[in-house]
Amino acid sequence: MENRVVIVGRPNVGKSSLFNRIVGRRKAIVEDVPGVTRDAIEAVAEWKGKEFVVVDTGGFVPETADEILRSVRETIRREMNRAGVLILVVDAREGITPLDEEIARELYPFKDRVVVAVNKVDTKKEEASVPEFYSLGFEKVFPVSAVHGRGVGDLLDEIVSRLEEEKARIRYEGIRISFVGRPNVGKSSLINSLLREERVIVSPVAGTTRDAVEIPFRWKNTDFVLVDTAGVRRPSRVEYGVEFFSVGRTIRAIEDSDVVCLVIDGEEGITRQDKRLGGLIERRMRGCVIVVNKMDLCPYSEEDAESIVRKELFFLDYAPITFTVATEGKGVESVLEKAVIVYRDFTRQHKTSFVNRAVAKVLREKPPPHYRGKEVKVFYAFQESTKPPAVVLITNYPDGWKESYRRFFTKKLREYLNIKNAPLKLVIRGRE
């Protein structure tokens, strides 16, 4: 049994609020709308020196023909089997509902692992309703207010008393690949095709993914963390609320990634929003693979499509391009192959002597323009860091390096340093 605490309950009883309270930061999106959480979201929490993984799940709903809701139920059932402790969250204000009773029946096989959190106990009136929840058939019932923190300490005392002393195991090691793109371009389908299972909820309905979902994954002896993000629409269409926070998490996922897969709809072609996202990746200096998905619906050949992509996303000239049909599994492994190549360049480290020889080659090919009538010199250079590779030039006139020349110099230096598939950060410093 893992040190894994899984929160379950029907929609809108406050599961995500309780998750955020336990974790101690706003990781799950909280809004007074049923069905905001759809994928399982997890984070490490600590209470009284003991670490454990907390998992927030989607709202449990009755059996239905709806594809998304069926997927939510399957995700919850899978998490139930892995849980060391299960928290059944119910609503003190609404009392026991038929759906609460159905969820309780689902939990009976794990009865010794279940604690009941009666949420929204903010007044004496709600406190008076707590005893009725013992009728659900579980021994431990705790009145809590996730929003205000009331009673959560007692709940956590009970939880950690049931857990092992071992450290929480949450595997986030490996090449971090985030999948970003407009809504409904096939990001989740790509991940599921790579995993060969329905780990991420997929639906033709735009906006199915709300949170950035992280999935550890191993392929050909290489560890990855696949990050599925919410589809990003153009700013004028993003309302404050769930989608506003989803976009923020997508941007943060880009910043935390080693490689960003920019997923483009092969049928619709490159849009202004695709360019905006590409610009974001370039400015954050992340490794990138451009994935043209739905190639079965694309009106162009792969060769013509690649020419169009290179023209429209010229600023991502270092990003390899791959073509996929995620729903059929076509080309999906090439995404990982390209990501490994990008990561190799993204983490490439060169000796100072090699960097200086490469810099000298670029300067011989085309020296920088004079600054105020004086020659601009480079005294020496060295590689300062990786992710991305950062090369520092020590020069007599840092202000003399115009933007156009910097772009030329960076491109040529990438070529001579054999960093073909990742961005290169150029840092210009004075001798002092």
Total domains, how many?
Answer: 3
Q: Give helix % range.
A: 25-40%
Strand order of the largest sheet: 2-3-1-4-5-6
CATH topology of the largest domain: Rossmann fold
Radius of gyration: 26 Å
User: What is the N-to-C succession of helices and strands?
Assistant: EHEEHEHEHEHEHEEHEHEHEHHEEHE
What's the shape?
elongated
- Return the structural class: alpha/beta
CATH superfamily of the largest domain: P-loop containing nucleotide triphosphate hydrolases
The tally of helices reads 12
Q: Class of the largest domain in CATH?
A: Alpha Beta
Strand content: 15-25%
End-to-end gap:
59 Å
Characterize the main sheet: 6 strands, mixed
pLDDT under 50 segments (min length 5)?
Answer: 25-38, 198-211, 233-246
Round the mean pLDDT to the nearest integer and report it. 83
Number of strands: 15
CATH architecture of the largest domain: 3-Layer(aba) Sandwich
Oligomer: single chain
